[in-house]
Structures are given as structure tokens and as C-alpha cells.
């Protein structure tokens, strides 16, 4: 039998955590033959709720689940962790300015970065889901100098999956026929879902759709504002789809992208496509043996350039704001 992989989940008692933990424990994160040990991090007032979820996990009798530990202390929660899913974050509440939001999240992601630096396993891989995810990932990464920067990623896979679903719906294609979808930039309303490099059954997606009005005024805003539409319809924010995308992100990272395809991940920029070095921005990436690589050489026309630049400018502003707050 294989040694269990240690997976730490923060915000474990939240909505996304509740949808995520059962899929991790049933083998969807790492594979049907990989046992997992869960370490759950919560704030003290939510520890009891996390214990309730742990009881339910016990009751599922998952053969791959080899243990669950619950902590309210980051240093202990990240001890020996191989995969860290940072879901817990401070949500924006009424009257809160962006600076307040960044500061509150700095108070969470700085100590978590330090704890990962001090105690995580050498092969640790980190996915930040909690918003503002890209900048929270940057804060954590900056406080983990001994961990290769490329191990810190933020989630745009839900946006990517939403884009696949919208394109499939518009064209009648199956999502399985769509390749090379890309989300560029920030996981926010400025994100840019790019159809100009996507393919449907081998044909260029933008050409297949051949409807610039739909692309500009329907597709892009629908993908970018899908979160708000879900809240409007469900009366609560998306949780199961976010959890599913987190599973996809890590599974693809660890197991690799298919030949002739890529995925979207927010990763540390090396300056590719004019994105300032060090920002954690979404790119088209291929993965192999647990390493990602930014897809190079794509032609970016003026339409795409303007949208990528706008989203990246927002990331630069967020980085400036957290610098001014002394968070990085
Ligand atoms: P959720 O589980 O619904 O969401 C958690 C985070 O994921 C939020 O920051 C949310 O951002 C973000 N998110 C990213 N993408 C999406 C998406 N597509 N749809 C919805 N959310 C998305 O929040 P809950 O309030 O239910 O739970 C949060 C838990 O985290 C609580 O149990 C709390 O106690 C815990 N927590 C733990 C901390 C820690 O471990 N140190 C620190 C802070 C909180 P958005 O703002 O957009 O909703």
C-alpha cells in the first residue's frame, strides 16, 4: 500500500470545504489508488462545525481516507503537508473598502505562508481559492522564501470550466470536444476568457462561433459575472462548482494536461505575454509530472491585448496596495 498524501484544507467548515472534502476523501483529487490524510484548519469558532464534517467523513467509510486532524493553528495544520488548499478567506462585507479586504486577508495569508515555509513537505503544492485569490496567493508566496515560487497557484479553473460550458452551449458541441480554452489575468470581473486560441473538434472556436457581438457582449460578461448570477439564483454563492474546479486544478497539475490541450491556472509570471514578473496571473499552462509551464508563442491580437492588459493592471494595483500595507 502507498504512503498517504497529506492534504491540508483551510476554511474546512465553509460551504466550499463541505463540497470539497468528500471528493478529496473519495479519491478524486489525487487518484483512486492514493490514500489521503486530511488536516483541516479553521478559526476557533468554526472548529466544532469542522468536527461535525469530520464525523460525516468517518461515516462515509472511505477506503482511501487514512485520518483526519483538525486545527485552529496554521503552524500545525501545514506540518508535513503535500497539498494545501487555501479556501478560508475573509469575505468582503458591506461597507468594506478594498484596502480593508486586502488587509484582513493579509492577516490570514501571511501567517499561512510562513507556516507552509516552516513545516510543509518539500514537494508541497498550494492552491489558493479564497478571494482575492491571486493576491492572497502572492502574499502567502512572499512569506515562504524557501518554497519554490511556482508551487503557489491560484484558481481560475472555475472560470475556465464556466467558459467551456458557455461555449458548448452556444455551439451545441460537447465540452469534451473543446480544447485550449484560456482564462487570462485576475480571478475577478476583469478576467479575460479567450476564444481565439480555443478549438472545437480541432477548428478554431472564435471562427466557428463567428459572432463577435456574442463573444464580446454575452460570452465574456457571462463567464466573468457568473458568480453573481449564481448568488442571484441560488441565494448563496457557488460552492460545489468551486470545489469541483479545485479538484480539477490539482488533479491536472499532478497528473498532467492531455496532448494537444492546456488548462488555465494563475501562476507566478516570468514576464510572458508582458505580464510583470512575480504577479500571480492566469495563463494557458501545460502540466507534466507535477510541474506547470506557460504555453509560449500564442499570437495576441489587439482585442485580446487590451483585455489582458486591463486585468493585469488590476493585479499590479493589488500588489501595490498590499506593498503599501506592508503585507509583502
Ligand atoms: P466559502 O466556502 O463559500 O468560500 C470560501 C472562499 O472561497 C471565499 O473567499 C470565496 O470568495 C472563495 N471563492 C473563490 N471562488 C469562488 C467561487 N467561484 N464561488 C464561491 N466562492 C469562491 O465561504 P464560507 O464563508 O462558507 O466559508 C469560509 C470558511 O473559512 C469559514 O468556515 C471560516 O470560518 C473559514 N475561515 C478560515 C480561516 C482559516 O482557516 N485561517 C480564515 C478565514 C475564514 P468570495 O469572497 O468571492 O465569496
From TrEMBL:
Keyword NAD belongs to the record: yes
Q: Does the keyword Disulfide bond apply?
A: no
Q: Which reaction does it catalyse?
A: (S)-malate + NAD(+) = oxaloacetate + NADH + H(+)
- Which residues does the UniProt record annotate as the domain Lactate/malate dehydrogenase N-terminal? 6-145
Where, in this chain's numbering, is NAD(+) bound? 11-17, 105, 112, 129-131
> Membrane-spanning residues where?
none
Enzyme class (EC, first level) = oxidoreductase
Question: Which residues does UniProt mark as catalytic?
Answer: 187
Q: What is its EC number?
A: 1.1.1.37
One MF term from GO for this chain?
L-malate dehydrogenase (NAD+) activity
Top-rank taxon: Bacteria
Which keywords accompany this UniProt record? Answer: NAD, Oxidoreductase, Tricarboxylic acid cycle
Q: Which residues bind substrate?
A: 92, 98, 131, 162
Lactate/malate dehydrogenase C-terminal domain residues: 156-322
Single biological process term from Gene Ontology: malate metabolic process
Sequence similarity: Belongs to the LDH/MDH superfamily. MDH type 2 family.
Q: What job does this protein perform?
A: Catalyzes the reversible oxidation of malate to oxaloacetate.
UniProt-recorded name of the protein: Malate dehydrogenase
Q: Which organism is it from?
A: Actinomadura luteofluorescens
Amino acid at each position: 500500500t502507498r504512503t498517504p498524501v497529506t492534504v491540508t484544507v483551510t476554511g474546512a467548515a465553509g460551504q466550499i470545504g463541505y463540497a470539497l472534502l468528500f471528493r478529496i476523501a473519495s479519491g478524486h483529487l489525487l487518484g483512486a489508488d492514493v490514500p489521503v490524510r486530511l488536516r483541516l484548519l479553521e478559526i476557533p469558532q468554526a472548529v466544532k462545525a469542522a468536527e461535525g464534517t469530520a464525523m460525516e467523513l468517518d461515516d462515509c467509510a472511505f477506503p482511501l481516507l487514512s485520518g483526519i486532524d483538525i486545527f485552529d493553528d496554521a503552524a500545525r495544520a501545514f506540518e508535513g503537508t503535500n497539498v494545501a488548499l487555501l479556501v478560508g478567506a475573509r469575505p468582503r462585507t458591506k461597507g468594506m473598502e478594498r484596502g480593508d479586504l486586502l488587509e484582513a486577508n493579509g492577516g490570514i495569508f501571511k501567517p499561512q505562508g510562513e507556516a507552509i515555509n516552516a513545516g510543509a513537505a518539500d514537494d508541497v503544492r498550494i492552491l489558493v481559492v479564497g478571494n482575492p485569490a491571486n493576491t492572497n496567493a502572492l502574499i502567502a508566496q512572499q512569506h515562504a522564501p524557501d518554497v519554490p515560487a511556482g508551487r503557489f497557484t491560484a484558481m481560475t479553473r472555475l472560470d475556465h470550466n464556466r467558459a467551456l460550458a458557455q461555449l458548448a452551449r452556444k455551439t451545441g458541441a460537447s465540452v469534451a470536444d473543446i480544447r485550449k480554452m484560456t482564462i487570462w489575468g485576475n480571478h475577478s470581473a476583469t478576467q479575460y476568457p479567450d476564444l481565439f486560441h480555443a478549438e472545437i473538434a480541432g477548428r478554431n472556436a472564435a471562427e466557428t462561433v463567428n459572432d463577435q457581438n456574442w463573444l464580446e457582449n454575452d460570452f465574456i460578461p457571462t463567464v466573468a459575472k457568473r458568480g453573481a448570477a449564481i448568488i442571484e439564483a441560488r441565494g448563496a454563492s457557488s460552492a460545489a462548482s468551486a470545489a469541483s474546479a479545485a479538484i480539477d486544478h490539482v488533479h491536472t497539475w499532478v497528473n498532467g494536461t492531455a496532448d494537444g490541450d492546456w488548462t488555465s491556472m494563475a501562476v507566478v509570471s516570468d514576464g510572458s505575454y508582458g505580464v510583470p514578473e512575480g504577479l500571480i496571473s492566469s495563463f494557458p499552462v501545460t502540466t507534466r509530472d507535477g510541474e506547470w509551464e506557460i504555453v509560449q508563442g500564442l499570437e495576441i491580437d489587439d482585442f485580446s491585448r487590451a483585455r489582458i492588459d486591463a486585468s493585469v493592471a488590476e493585479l499590479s494595483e493589488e500588489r501595490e496596495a498590499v506593498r503599501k500595507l506592508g503585507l509583502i
